[in-house]
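Reopening this one. Same input as before:
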Amino acid sequence: MRAAFGGIRRGWTTFWFRPEPTSTIAVVRIVFGFVATLWTLSQAVNLLTFYGPDGVFPVVPVPGVGAWTLLSISTSAPVVIGLWVVTLFGAVGVMIGFRTRLATVLLLVGVLSFERRNPMILNAGDVLLRNLAFYFIFAPAGAALSVDRWRRARDRFWEFPLRAPWALRLMQIQLSVIYLSTVWGKLQGDLWRNGTAVSYALRVADILRFPTPSFLTESVVLVEIMTFGTLGLELALAIFVWNRTLRPWILALGVLLHLSIDFSIMVGFFTLLMLTTYLTFLPPESACRLVRSARQRLGRWKARRRPPVAPPPESPSGVPAANSRPDPHRRPHRVRRPSKRVHTGRR
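Same output, byte for byte:
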């Protein structure tokens, strides 16, 4: 019994706290920061319409117990615009890794304030953005591939220090929770249990990118395959993503699932953020290889853009002209001096 508990304890410690290279969390941070920047920029078009005092939701909703938003203080245009600018700075700071922890806090506060100011325009992608920002506060996100790393150890910028991955594990668990809760919620309704839910979803014209062909929405067999197939794949993603052998295949199917949803239905940033969460399962050694490959490609690209060095012009005697720069790779011309004879006084 003691040996069994010892094995469980070692497994628990290894899963949460055994130090790993920070290559994975660095890659996830860059991608997440980029998506968060796009999300913030997308709010600029309807910023005052969605969150201003004269917009579609002029009255600030009463927050629940423990809920808060900075826009409950004021919803004037300068305050809304100022909060948006701070959120944008936070998103860019997360992406480049500048004052990473502070930037993550600014991003979380901004996203949370906007979402609770007008909860009527939210979807699952906005909630996932908020959750991931919360996890990044506790993650060593700026330990590698960041401006913070450049400032601390410029000569070791491309190294990945070891850190405990417990915050990354929370993001991985979040992915499983999303799929498990999704399957559970869908099974509470009749449409998913009788196999017709996808047909209804593909006929809501307001959220479709283009009209769905009728043979997809009216075929009983195809509709049931898509409906029950979606449920089965989401359940498999929640469970088998923890199996190292099946993980690449199940995640590949998940990528196809989300891309097909985003191709047909406007789901905001949900697809991009789900695929960002997939990156949390990228092994550290694979992330290291990915970064090295990107670094080599960047070096080759810079080498191709560097202008070629022209050889210096030469005079007819073969000596470089006076107004030309010396070639550092050219061997200097050696001039032999006449040797001096030493007189010893003997004949």
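So the earlier flakiness isn't reproducible anymore. For the record, Strands lie at 20-21, 162-163.
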